[in-house]
Amino acid sequence: xxxxxxxxxxxxxxxxxxxxxxxxxxxxxxxxxxxxxxxxxxxxxxxxxxxxxxxxxxxxxxxxxxxxxxxxxxxxxxxxxxxxxxxxxxxxxxxxxxxxxxxxxxxxxx
Length: 110
Description:
Elements (H helix, E strand, L loop, with lengths): L2 H11 L4 H8 L3 H9 L6 H11 L3 H5 L9 H11 L3 H23 L2
């Protein structure tokens, strides 16, 4: 997905106007409009400000990389799990696997 579409979708998800995004990032509303139309691409620094405002990673914002589908909260949880001891990790993974299996079965039979 193109960065302009991601920015537009995230802004609409948050129910923000272009002015809201501009205020949260310190960039002009005119530039937000240009980014959303695809008339301009944000610099790395501006993209970082936009990603931070939306609480997503740069990977997510540009739709590339290993973590492109994860928001910052999900990434933080993954990092926290990696810091746990092996027994606790195994218990959490078993719980996660059970929930996922049950949801897949529920979806398959509905």
